[in-house]
């Protein structure tokens, strides 16, 4: 988009109509033109010209200070709009984009029809643009800015040979050095001796040449991470009702499921992109608690989210395209089923996962929680709650071999203080008072020492499992030791069944 800065000002109606417009910025102690509109170009004004010379040529010129941050924001908005054609869009600041249309061209007829549609619609929005098709990013960049043809020929060397060396994305100093050496076109570089040439001009020019011709790989960073699996659909007529959108979403799900089956994986997180005729992108995210690639559960979740978001879509002009991205997937481990299913008498993992998915879609992922255990010094801090979608169901702990429970079924969130009397200073209590009732200890087992967190300087605890004369069992602990600066304190922390 060679006139991005001035096109933005014209679209925002910040420039007077019927007058030449230019954007300028201070560079190297002088004010230079960084953008000119079509009218200014026809008067002989060009980029990098000083503002004083431009005013001398055309005194009626409207010059406005450049706003690179606003230009970058506009470029990002255009990139987001281009995601209706392909999910892989790369920003090429300050005025360009790379679109990887691999596997997308057939949805628009062919790659040339896709390119023409993008150009036509951008120009209808007020942005002058040039686009080119090529097998490599470097070749597309060169042809879009310096080529006379809109797409590369079958032979990339023949397409790029007549272009100037600046088409290789070199900096000004490197391009000037090549011109002083008499190498003005890309074709002249093809026959240059590499050893002596790279020693004088550096390796970057030859690297850029190899990248443009496909001899060296080039890695581009997309604006957003490319989804591992996606499906894209365009509609001949805009969709307005939720029912018709759901029918299109079902087709997208079938396409995604087919690709997931080839990978042997299931979806854990999906994003549904609805592209409106107004140029806005509506995104609906869905998460599942376990890998899923069945149509019915996926459609149930997407229908739930879409019906809840329908009133906020604000798609009064309709939806012209939709894309379903699997942003996170996970391999599915196939387990052999039994002849008699125990799931007939209790909820199995699939049923629980389905309930978690539906409730998370309806109430929000942060409102459906799952119990989680984690390592902690204090037993009361070992249990926590986390989002059910983000955590796998914890396996039930194996029962002890001797059948003796080491931890109580009822654990108090805050240990309750008691008054205890021990026969020996560091031994178990022989009686204790809890909730104003004196209890005589008949049996005791322990101690089990749990060290305190050294970062918080917490005291160590000695835990005892005790049973009173009525048969009630308690989990008590002593905090601190006898003979210290402070007398130890006793607490009841839990109750056994």
Concise account of the structure shown:
The chain is 31% helix and 28% strand. A hairpin with a 6-residue loop joins β12 and β13 (429-434).
Report on the architecture of this protein.
The model has no long low-confidence stretch (mean pLDDT 86). The protein contains 14 helices and 17 strands. The protein is elongated. A hairpin with a 4-residue loop joins strand 15 and strand 16 (473-479). With 497 residues, it is of the alpha+beta class. Among the domains are: 4-66, MutS, DNA mismatch repair protein, domain I (3-Layer(aba) Sandwich), CATH 3.40.1170; 132-213, no CATH class; 229-331, Dna Ligase, domain 1; 410-495, no CATH class. It is 31% helix and 28% strand. The longest helix has 22 residues, at 242-263. A six-stranded antiparallel beta barrel has the order 12-13-14-15-16-17. A four-stranded antiparallel beta sheet has the order 6-9-7-8, covered by helices on one side.
């Amino acid at each position: 988009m060679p006139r991005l800065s001035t096109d933005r000002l014209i679209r925002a109606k910040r420039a007077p109509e019927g007058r030449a417009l230019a954007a300028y910025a201070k560079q190297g102690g002088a004010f230079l033109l960084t953008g000119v509109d079509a009218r200014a170009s026809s008067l002989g004004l060009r980029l990098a010209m000083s503002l004083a010379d431009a005013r001398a040529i055309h005194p009626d010129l409207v010059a406005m200070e450049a706003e690179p941050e606003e230009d970058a924001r506009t470029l990002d908005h255009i990139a987001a709009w281009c995601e209706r054609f392909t999910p892989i869009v790369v920003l090429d600041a300050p005025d360009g984009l790379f679109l990887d249309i691999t596997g997308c061209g057939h949805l628009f007829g062919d790659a040339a029809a896709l390119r023409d549609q993008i150009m036509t619609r951008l120009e209808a929005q007020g942005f002058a643009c040039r686009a080119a098709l090529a097998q490599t990013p470097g070749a597309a960049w060169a042809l879009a800015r310096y080529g006379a043809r809109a797409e590369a020929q079958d032979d990339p060397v023949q397409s790029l040979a007549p272009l100037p060396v600046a088409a290789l994305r070199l900096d000004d100093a490197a391009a000037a050095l090549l011109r002083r050496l008499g190498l003005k076109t890309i074709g002249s570089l093809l026959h240059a001796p590499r050893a002596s040439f790279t020693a004088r001009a550096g390796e970057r020019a030859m690297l850029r040449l190899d990248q443009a011709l496909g001899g060296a790989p080039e890695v581009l960073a997309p604006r957003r991470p490319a989804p591992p699996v996606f499906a894209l659909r365009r509609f001949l007529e805009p969709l307005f009702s939720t029912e018709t959108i759901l029918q299109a979403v079902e087709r997208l799900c079938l396409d995604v499921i087919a690709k997931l089956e080839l990978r042997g994986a299931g979806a854990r997180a999906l994003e549904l992109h609805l592209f409106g005729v107004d140029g806005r992108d509506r995104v609906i995210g869905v998460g599942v608690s376990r890998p899923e690639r069945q149509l019915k559960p996926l459609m149930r979740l997407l229908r739930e989210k879409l019906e809840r978001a329908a009133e906020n879509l604000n798609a009064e002009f309709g939806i012209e395209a939709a894309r379903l991205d699997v942003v996170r997937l996970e391999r599915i481990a196939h387990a052999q089923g039994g002849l008699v299913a125990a799931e007939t008498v209790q909820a199995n993992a699939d049923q629980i996962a389905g309930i978690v998915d539906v409730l998370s879609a309806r109430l929000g992922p942060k409102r459906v929680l799952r119990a989680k255990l984690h390592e902690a010094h204090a037993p009361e801090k070992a249990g926590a709650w986390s989002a059910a979608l983000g955590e796998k169901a914890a396996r039930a702990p194996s029962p002890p071999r001797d059948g003796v429970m080491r931890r109580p079924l009822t654990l108090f969130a805050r240990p309750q203080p008691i008054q205890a009397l021990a026969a020996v200073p560091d031994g178990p209590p022989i009686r204790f008072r809890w909730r104003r009732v004196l209890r005589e200890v008949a049996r005791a087992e322990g101690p089990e020492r749990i060290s305190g967190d050294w970062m918080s300087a917490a005291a160590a605890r000695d835990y005892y499992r005790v049973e009173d004369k009525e048969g009630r069992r308690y989990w008590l602990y002593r905090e601190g030791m006898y003979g210290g600066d402070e007398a130890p304190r006793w607490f009841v922390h839990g109750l056994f069944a």
